[in-house]
Amino acid sequence: MTPFEIRVPASSANIGPGFDSMGLALDLYLTVAVYPSDKWQVFQNSPHLPNQTDDEDHYILQMARSVAARWNQELPACRLRIESEIPLARGLGSSASAIVAGIELADQVCVLNLTQEQKLEIGTEIEGHPDNIAPALMGGFIISTVVDGHVDWISLPDPDLEMVLYIPGSDLKTEEARNALPATYTRELAASASAISNVLIASLAAGDYLLAGRMMEHDLFHEPYRASLIPNYESIRDEAKQQGAYGTVISGAGPTMMSFIPKEKGQTIATHFQRFLPDYQVVLLLANHTGSSITHMT
Ligand SMILES: Nc1ncnc2c1ncn2[C@@H]1O[C@H](COP(=O)(O)OP(=O)(O)O)[C@@H](O)[C@H]1O
Ligand SMILES: N[C@@H](CCOP(=O)(O)O)C(=O)O
Predict the structure, then answer these.
(1) Which of 21, 95, 124, 132 to mutate to test the pocket of ligand 2 (most atoms within 8 A of CB)?
(2) For the chain, N or C: smaller number of CB within 10 Å?
(3) What CATH number does the domain containing 106 carry?
(4) Which atom of ligand 2 approaches the CA of 253 most closely?
(5) For the complex shown, is ipTM > 0.90?
């Protein structure tokens, strides 16, 4: 086996009313360098990675083993060097990126020759929803859903916008934020919520960002129930609007929030917000268009 590197982008899911369906890949990366070895060894080099006591038990390895087992294969031992720019449990899809890294690892070392569709279906089954997995795997802005056990998806042209993210110091586990949601919605609410989502997607596709910004701030599926878990939810939305953002949403399950900003204005707004929210990490990010990638080292 020649050494290789797996690179998987972060992603921001939901974009307001696209709950469990919309996601945008972002240019922050989880990187796993893989070398042949006679025993499992995992080296981690990043403040954004969970503490690891047992190399054999690493989450990415667990994912890779479970994928290999579906094809009745065992993972050969490897040495992994893992680095990450994706803050954990902040709503930037770190778990989906780790799942995709595990799928790519199994695919490469067991020579499974998985198609993108197979990777997407396996990742979605593990994560439970495709909104982070699809962009982490394929890049760009992806709308996806599961119908009859199959993941259907479509890629939207990249919005001609900049994204500013407000990342707080505190974390919020996706599971906890999902527990805040109602178990059922009335027909009236579901009809309004999906209508808002429909108008959002159509306005993004048409490039009508004023309308898209209005729709993304009127989600009825998850934001009203999660707002109280997100520090500075209202003040970030209000201040971003004052500064010229089209719209601001919870990134994934939070607690990060993300604004969609007219081109060329992102850096000014990010600089302003770093003063407004001194305890946050405020970053201007671009979309990632490639999704996960494998580079063989020579
Ligand atoms: N690179 C990684 N290596 C190991 N575990 C990871 C990695 N990335 C994410 N995880 C696991 O996923 C959890 C975070 O997932 P989640 O609560 O869904 O938040 P999010 O996906 O928004 O970052 C972490 O606490 C950790 O258990
Ligand atoms: N649709 C999911 C998205 C979770 O994204 P994450 O980045 O917070 O893991 C949800 O809203 O629960």
Answers:
(1) 132
(2) C
(3) 3.30.230.10
(4) 8
(5) yes
